[in-house]
Amino acid sequence: MTDRRMWKYFDRLPLESEANIVTLGEGGTPLLDASATIGAEIGVGSLVLKAEHLNPTGSFKARIASLAVSLLRERSLAGLVGTSSGNGGAAGAAYAAAAGSRIVLFTLSDTLAMKRLEISAVGGAAFRVDGVGHDAASTRRVADMISSAARAANFYPMLTGYHYAPEAMAAVETIAFEIADESPGLTEVYAPVGGGGLLTGLYRGFDRERAETGTAVPTLVGAHPEGASALPLALAGDASGMATPVTSTVSGLQMAVLFDPEGAVSALQSSGGRSRAVSDDEIWQAQHLLATRCGILVEPAGATSLAGVIADARDGRLGSRSHVGAILSGAGYKDTASLARMVGSAEPPVISVTEVGGLLENLLVSHEAGV
Ligand SMILES: Cc1ncc(COP(=O)(O)O)c(C=O)c1O
Question: Was domain 61-167 assigned CATH 3.10.20.70?
Fold first, then answer.
């Protein structure tokens, strides 16, 4: 392996032998500087975007799946079994295929079509379960059943929370290692929150980095849709989740209960951070801004951290002394309906060959001459 990417941190990950690594090139994602564009517009000192949507399976979950399937190989386990809103499943299925192993997934009933295709195209078996994600009791019940069945049958639990799969989740910490290596002076880092595993892993990673290299831990902010409020409930001491179903339409963040309530609360409290609610509308606006100002296409969940940054800047919580990082967690191709909503009716018109000359004259030559 010439470019080790995430596996550059092999020594900090819970795998015994490098010979068992199953990789598709995960990690080592770029930290893109948006200070001169969005950063300047919203008045923060600097703004960097961690491009996790560029991972092999289009989300940060590729890191977790790489480690999960490597552990599976090291332990000669029978396969993977898990829940998913789509991205964890797509990642698990791809890495299982790469290792010649099998995966069984129980996904949200309204998992996006593209995420379902990603799972099936690489040979993953999936069932859509009513209530999972959307209501707290069903989500916990199914996850707990999977976790104990996995243990009994020698399967690895592809449940992306420390509560269920603490070793595989250590892969999330490598996002923080990479950010701390490249941009050690960040004051705040914003992360989207569904089950809370990403937020928990980021804090653990930054805290390990502090212990090993002395780099200060940035303040962590958990951005979540208004209609998926398990994080503020947990912060207020109620880890049992929402009493009513999720109303947000943001795929990946539709979680009525946190998988990692203790980890997420401790990440915010120990780093002096907070939760930040944003509407689905604000999330779509941030997605649109990333596309049109930076040329970056993410799915709505992937723009949620930036929506949080924008809302906090507007409310005066961030300013010229803030050096902000935002995690872009999932790729735009996964949610084609959200791209269609962004574009509206602005589809390219169909024209004839004879019209091309006139258009070139009008659009390029006259423009060049300043007409
Ligand atoms: C694109 C994307 N962003 C964020 C999240 C939320 O991560 P977590 O459940 O670890 O909070 C998910 C979870 O599926 C996701 O797919």
Answer: no
Cβ neighbours of residue 32 closer than 8 Å, sequence gap 6 or more: 48, 49, 50, 51, 294, 296
pLDDT in tens, 115-161: 999 999 999 999 999 999 999 999 999 999 999 999 999 999 999 99
If you measure from the C-alpha of residue 360 to the centroid of ligand 1, how many angstroms do you get, rounded to a whole number?
A: 45
The beta-strand segments (E) located in 211-367 are 219-225, 274-278, 323-328
Residue 367: predicted pLDDT:
62
Question: 5-58+171-343 maps to which CATH number?
Answer: 3.40.50.1100
For ligand 1, say whether the CB of 225 is within 6 Å of any of its atoms: no
Instruction: Indicate if ligand 1 lies below 6 Å from the C-beta of 59.
Output: yes
CA of 252 to the centre of ligand 1 (A): 5
296 phi/psi in degrees, rounded to 5: -110, 120
Torsions phi, psi for 322 (to 5 deg): -90, 130
